[in-house]
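Lay summary. Proteins are chains of building blocks that fold into shapes, and those shapes determine what they do. In this project we predict the shape from the chain. Here is one chain we studied, written as its sequence of building blocks.
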Amino acid sequence: MKTLKIGNLCASVPIVQGGMGVGISLAGLASAVASEGGIGVISSAGLGVIYGSRPADYREASIRGLKEELRKAREATRGIIGVNVMVAMSNFADMVRTAIAEKADIIFSGAGLPLSLPSFLPEGARTKLAPIVSSARAAVLLCRKWFEEYRYVPDAIVVEGPKAGGHLGYKREQIDDSHYSLETLVPEIVAEVSKFGAEHECHIPVIAGGGIYTGEDIYRIMELGAEGVQMGTRFVTTDECDADPAFKQSYIDARREDIEIIESPVGMPGRALRSSFLDRVREGLKRPKACPFDCIKTCDVTHSPYCIMLALYNAFKGKLQNGYAFCGANAWRAEKIQSVRELMSSLSAEYDSFAQKIKGLAR
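And here is the predicted shape, written in a compact code that computers can read:
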């Protein structure tokens, strides 16, 4: 595989492990991926629940939790460690400031356009910024906004297609529309980003994610212009994934028909594994009386059938009867638990094998 260069950062394997909350990708998984040459990513979502003792402590506990997870990751690896911070989070600013102060290598930010992200960077900060977008239009808008307001050019751009797990930046009717497929989006975004980079005499690598599962998938999407890939689902069924074993087993037990698109309380469609909890929601689960955490800006407790933070936290702890697992479109293909090293090695071998096959056909 080719290396992935983001400014002065160089990943020997062009794989970014997707940030997965609540608690699915913490220091354990992120450091393991970084040690194998990829970019490990800690999810900042829900750290206040994991590290807090009561809802009132949520924001302070989130800051403490992110500091602790970055410290643990740094002790475990000398590789590249990033942090995922969702724009929709009510403590977005806290998490961004903390990641920068703790010298995270890179911040990945989506679930909304992070138009103000460069405003948090103090002079001399080493942290790179990589927005996550779902269209060429969004990529261009963000690039122009960052440059006009902050004289800052994105260090990388992640395009997340509709086969991704968790919250999706698409309308429900767009999810299965080929016009919005990752294979369609990548060339469009690469072309626009390359044009912007040329105008400003810089290079902005594009990283593609959403439904990428094999080394062959990596090869094919990089042939379309992506310089790296983002993968989340594949890393759930690893020894080092920070989720409870029951969460991982739910992927292995899943059938294709168990993967569904749900309407999340945060106002976005999401992809998840069917569970008894989601079945009860459809049947009219009792609504929460109050919002315990105020964790997502767009979540309206008066219209929410459940607290998404508690549902995802319960799933992280293996209590799937009281929650559910987000997943990518290919989660049903999981067959076993393996180490991150074994997974990265198999992906590299698949990539190389397919590359040789293509070269052989071209002769």
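What the prediction tells us: The radius of gyration is 19 Å.
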